[in-house]
Amino acid sequence: xxxxxxxxxxxxxxxxxxxxxxxxxxxxxxxxxxxxxxxxxxxxxxxxxxxxxxxxxxxxxxxxxxxxxxxxxxxxxxxxxxxxxxxxxxxxxxxxxxxxxxxxxxxxxxxxxxxxxxxxxxxxxxxxxxxxxxxxxxxxxxxxxxxxxxxxxxxxxxxxxxxxxxxxxxxxxxxxxxxxxxxxxxxxxxxxxxxxxxxxxxxxxxxxxxxxxxxxxxxxxxxxxxxxxxxxxxxxxxxxxxxxxxxxxxxxxxxxxxxxxxxxxxxxxxxxxxxxxxxxxxxxxxxxxxxxxxxxxxxxxxxxxxxxxxxxxxxxxxxxxxxxxxxxxxxxxxxxxxxxxxxxxxxxxxxxxxxxxxxxxxxxxxxxxxxxxxxxxxxxxxxxxxxxxxxxxxxxxxxxxxxxxxxxxxxxxxxxxxxxxxxxxxxxxxxxxxxxxxxxxxxxxxxxxxxxxxxxxxxxxxxxxx
Length: 466
Known about the structure:
Layout: H1 5-10, H2 24-35, H3 38-51, H4 56-79, H5 86-94, H6 97-126, H7 135-152, H8 158-184, H9 203-214, H10 234-263, H11 266-272, H12 276-284, H13 290-321, H14 340-356, H15 359-383, H16 399-411, H17 420-444, H18 455-458
Helix pairs in contact: 2-8, 2-10, 3-9, 3-11, 4-9, 4-10, 4-15, 4-16, 5-6, 5-15, 6-7, 6-13, 6-14, 6-15, 6-17, 7-13, 7-14, 8-10, 8-12, 8-13, 11-12, 13-14, 15-16, 15-17
């Protein structure tokens, strides 16, 4: 029988606290940058295919769902400012080892599917502004490149996050600015903004189906809780920074959607798929160099994929160190000091997904996995109300997590119009986790899982999972 790993950790000398260097402005910028990314750059066309001209509606609905869940994260990070992550909150609330493991593995899987989405957008859309190559070759080069950088070791800084956020934001502002100018010159048709495509289903199902995909563009905000220990007075500034940051990101998304629908018919956006924003730019500003926007898109999706693969491999490594997965995944390269087996494992999965699964399915699967996690987090905040702490902290209105449970839970079911292919991919990934769990269980016996030890593997300043 394996003794709980927390006992061995307790014997280690107490480490100094992380430096609290993040103020309200930097945290606000971080939250915005954490949300902006592959979702809006790659899935606008696929969302338009599901909703029609009312493209702004699912992005606004996705924001509302995410906003409600943010209240739960804010209460939990306020109560436990030194701890971050859905797995730890779930563990505190329910104390079920296997459930905690599955939440952790689900988050890890969402990182892989998100990175695969970015790789797909890289090869199928933005790279084509410079060269046209077979997807299998681009995917191999892209995933291998990420693996090599991951293997070498990457230390992101807040300054790098600011720079990358500026680049991602600049591309969206170009779309908004050029689009508004074109609309002001009389281009486009504003009546499209209220058109909902009901050819395949009713109005409600069209909206929920589109929202279930658009939600991919809003995730990432929850990862800012990992910065709580490095934030000055997190209990005070975290709520305002997160909620305002989410509002800013959602406003940008809605404006992009309004411009896109006004200038380009929904069927043309749908036909353009991941190149929908390039289509909008062609219509609004024919003289604008598409290669420049293509370069911005490349940087946006590369950064998103890299950080997600870093997160996924480190979570896998952390679970191996906790002895809840086979120890081989905890193998560290002697000179680079990086978890090379976990890097190879997650990279192989990502490559298979890129060459075999459609972009919209990958994005939808990422949203599905995280919606399931968010449902549990909303439950956890209600369960943990019985756990009182001495310091003051943000308290979510009770209705917020309750409504969050309903909406997140609904969007994670087939009733929302989510295609079965997303459940299939998510199910395969989670069954891999279950299989690894039981293989390890047969080898080492009963184990104890303390997810707080995974925090170090997830301390990165820019997840950008969307």
